[in-house]
Amino acid sequence: MIEALLSALVQLSSPDRLAYMALGVAIGYAIGVLPALGGLAGLSLVLPFIYGLDQVAALAMLTGLVAVAATADTYSSILMGIPGSSASQATILDGFPMARRGEAARALSASFIASMIGGLVGAIILSCAVLVARPLILALGTAELFMLAVLGLSMVGVLAGRSFGKGLVACGLGLALGTIGSAPATAEYRLDFGTLYLSDGLPLPVLVLAIFALPEIVDLARGGGTISKTAELGKGWIAGLRDIARHWWLLLRTSTIGSLLGAIPGLGGSVTDWIVYGHAVQTEKNGQFGKGDVRGVIAVEASNNAREGGALVPTLFFGIPSSGSMAVFLGGMTLIGIEAGPQLVGERLDLTYAIIWSLAIANVMGTALCFVTSPLIARLTTIRFGLIAPFMVMIVCFGAFNTSRDAADLYLLLAVGVLGLFMRRFGWPRPPFVVGFVLAQPMETYLYQAVQFYGWGFVERPGVLIIAAMIAVFVFVGARQRRLADTDDESEKRGQARPQAIFALVPVVIFAAVLLDATKHSFLGAVFPAMVAGAMLVISIPIVLKLFFAKDPGSLLHDGEEGSDESQGGFWTYLFWFAGLILGSALVGFLLASIVFFLAFLRVAAKCSWTKTLVLTAIANGGLVAVANVLVLDFPSGLLQSMIDLPWPLR
């Protein structure tokens, strides 16, 4: 154990791997600063670029990003009163009032140190979990691993949404799309429509970028205006450090609670921060919580970073992602050839400790970066949203294309992006979708192996029965509580039932197509997709009927566009902007289309002067060309390039 711990530190200490960790820290920091994005969007952005990296370097980069995004999202919560992510909502209650009193520096200082210590506590708990998890995991067979995956799906699918049915259907939709491509047991091609692109299944990075990043960018662009009207932080950096020393017991308690809650799949940051905040309110005396009490900031921020260490426990050791970001992290591990589960506490224990060291070191690096750059970030908050959006769209499209370097990546990005936009609008939780997609292939593999090893009698194994009982409990509790993690909790945004019913037909059609396709394959190639599609049809059809015909569909009815301000552009306006970039790329190639997109968007949507438009367009696309040149990456070509032989980078 000690040997593996030291070996991991030696591997991680090489300059190139530390550089990749620093890059992950920088990306996580940049993503965390932007409101509402969080580590999920950051992870989805870097997935296409970890191909070719050695495993330790890639893990260091991913872990660094996850660790620091949870620290940097404090900025917008404290300085602007806007949640930096779903896990920093409670920070606003005390952080923003402190900033309005001129104590922004004190609040930021306390939050940064609390985040760092919380992250270190999470790393310690993760390392201790290795001792407990190892004998437990090695005793698990493929039957139990299959049921653990089902357990993760049931909790995430139910607890991530305010509607029980929508959460399950979102999970099933991810599972159904995850069956596209070659069957693990028989290598039969399913729903590939005779195309080489779909023969290996849908690429995870493209799907994650589309389902998470694009909807957030559209909302960001539609927001208009600036993030904040002032860049003043005030004084109090030392006062924040004193607060940490004074409330050390609260810090350790909430860090431990956050880490333990993070290890429970489905109990995301949006739930954890309120549980921890409630604990602080109940246990601390003479509090002014909600009016600018620094203890509220310390409690929430410590638990947020500690939660990441806890969330890695089921992700690494059981292959069960405990949140949407952990699902993407798990997907990243798959991309670099690492399979979560027993091997990470066996022959690959050094990789587990590499993640633990990365988590600890990245938290220290991120905290230092936050302290140094706080005055600058306060000034950046005065930049208009409209100037940020085109840069993010460009990065998303370029990253998606470099997943497989096929133009179909961009078309898939657009198609799934539209799906993600409507899921967000109509209150369909997206984390269960990506969790289902990530776990589809491992679940099918474990099911196939369990049947091969034990026969269908595997359902009678004691471990399987115990996990099945746990699934029943979590489904029952989740169905009653109707927790909300990904969508707005605004009951008045109900909207009209007809458009929502029409959208609800989309998963029904997909499930029907999967079930119909399953009839064309052998038993082993068809059993898993048929089970998923059949079960989901039973759940999804009543949802459609209720939306079409019920007088009051209840929690199923939700439209985020209800009562929205159209002055900054409607829902469809920014969707057409993005679609225009994809269409332009198909016609004249990505680089030329990107230049035109920047010129048009900045001039028309952002209403910039010609001078600013030209300068920003040159900076963005010039930087993109420089990155492509260094990394030896290509741009998507279009119809123009097929007709005319153009020099790089235009070809």
UniProtKB/TrEMBL annotation:
<dbReference type="InterPro" id="IPR002823">
    <property type="entry name" value="DUF112_TM"/>
</dbReference>
<feature type="transmembrane region" description="Helical">
    <location>
        <begin position="167"/>
        <end position="187"/>
    </location>
</feature>
<keyword id="KW-0472">Membrane</keyword>
<feature type="transmembrane region" description="Helical">
    <location>
        <begin position="523"/>
        <end position="549"/>
    </location>
</feature>
<feature type="transmembrane region" description="Helical">
    <location>
        <begin position="138"/>
        <end position="160"/>
    </location>
</feature>
<feature type="transmembrane region" description="Helical">
    <location>
        <begin position="316"/>
        <end position="338"/>
    </location>
</feature>
<keyword id="KW-0812">Transmembrane</keyword>
<feature type="transmembrane region" description="Helical">
    <location>
        <begin position="383"/>
        <end position="401"/>
    </location>
</feature>
<feature type="domain" description="DUF112">
    <location>
        <begin position="18"/>
        <end position="434"/>
    </location>
</feature>
<feature type="transmembrane region" description="Helical">
    <location>
        <begin position="20"/>
        <end position="50"/>
    </location>
</feature>
<feature type="transmembrane region" description="Helical">
    <location>
        <begin position="463"/>
        <end position="479"/>
    </location>
</feature>
<feature type="transmembrane region" description="Helical">
    <location>
        <begin position="193"/>
        <end position="214"/>
    </location>
</feature>
<protein>
    <submittedName>
        <fullName>TctA family transporter</fullName>
    </submittedName>
</protein>
<dbReference type="Pfam" id="PF01970">
    <property type="entry name" value="TctA"/>
</dbReference>
<feature type="transmembrane region" description="Helical">
    <location>
        <begin position="350"/>
        <end position="377"/>
    </location>
</feature>
<feature type="transmembrane region" description="Helical">
    <location>
        <begin position="107"/>
        <end position="132"/>
    </location>
</feature>
<feature type="transmembrane region" description="Helical">
    <location>
        <begin position="614"/>
        <end position="633"/>
    </location>
</feature>
<feature type="transmembrane region" description="Helical">
    <location>
        <begin position="574"/>
        <end position="602"/>
    </location>
</feature>
<keyword id="KW-1133">Transmembrane helix</keyword>
<feature type="transmembrane region" description="Helical">
    <location>
        <begin position="56"/>
        <end position="75"/>
    </location>
</feature>
<feature type="transmembrane region" description="Helical">
    <location>
        <begin position="499"/>
        <end position="516"/>
    </location>
</feature>
<feature type="transmembrane region" description="Helical">
    <location>
        <begin position="408"/>
        <end position="427"/>
    </location>
</feature>
